Amino acid sequence: MPTEILSLRKKHGRPAAVDSRAMEGTIYVVVPVFNRKSLTARFLYCLRQQTFRKFEVIVVDDGSTDGTPELIAQQFSEVQLLRGDGNLLWTGAMNVGIRHALTRAATDDAILVINDDLEISPNYLTSLHRVWASMPRTLIGSVAVDIDNPEFIVDGGTLVNWWTAKIKNLNSGRRLSDFAKDHYLDASVLSGRGTLIPVQVFRHIGLYNGKHYQQTGDQELTVRACRAGYRLIVSYDGVVKSHTKASCGINVADSYCLADAKEYFFDVKSHTELRSCFFFAYDTATNPFSFVSFFLLHLARITGHFLLRLRFRRRRYSPDPPEKRKEYVDV
What we know:
Layout: E1 10-12, H1 20-23, E2 27-33, H2 37-48, E3 55-61, H3 68-75, E4 80-83, H4 89-104, E5 110-113, E6 118-120, H5 124-134, E7 138-146, E8 149-155, E9 158-160, E10 167-169, E11 183-186, E12 195-198, H6 199-205, H7 218-227, E13 231-242, H8 244-248, H9 260-266, H10 274-284, H11 288-308, E14 313-316, E15 327-330
Parallel strand pairs: 2-3, 2-5, 3-4, 7-13
Antiparallel strand pairs: 1-11, 5-12, 6-13, 7-8, 7-12, 9-10, 11-13, 14-15
Helix pairs in contact: 2-3, 10-11
């Protein structure tokens, strides 16, 4: 039995066929935000500079108290602002925005799910739209670079072995300039950090799973889409610049102390929260044996990651805003 459930073949070059309906489609940009006013403003300014103009922006503010909704209302009147009560978190906020977009969207439109801790170039939407027009039954992810070192790839796509839980981050550390224009490759999963999803996908398989995931349900939906017959690719023309430290918090710390274990394993915003890891293994498993294998081996990997970085010192860390970095004090 092959270990890889999904196709892992790399592709290069622009597909020849162009769907004329997708060429006319509108992109609905859905952005969940919470208490990151400066990052939100910077991201919305990037959207305002886009060369592709057939798009609408839907921001879902989940109860910000730092003036984010007031700033949007005053400075970005083109944005459709929806409000939450602070209990939506990423999955709930994204679903609110997607539902709103679906009430307006035509069959041949698409929805871009993306976060506000990113910056994009003026041709970003143009690049994604061009690929979408060539492959209309495809979910198109973005390649990520760090905002402080944008020449090098942080996330060039992810391959997952669904039995061993081995996760391979493609082309991490390589120069973005090493790849030709129109380069793309197939992936096992896509994140919510810049993924263009045709409207038909949501109408076919539903929204993000808010019952199982409060914060980290982005990848599960793309696996569901792939198994429903849609393709997952990462376009190397669609580049997002990530404020990595502001985005990933506890999961990108250089070292941990024992007190960090609670946040690392149980905080809903952690990518290694045990509840989400359990449900990801459960929801993506093709049989009970692959579920048990994936979950136990993934648990071993994330635990090992924590233990290898464990230090006996007190850690002070605040991921927001990005200018506040980690500080350590020996005890």
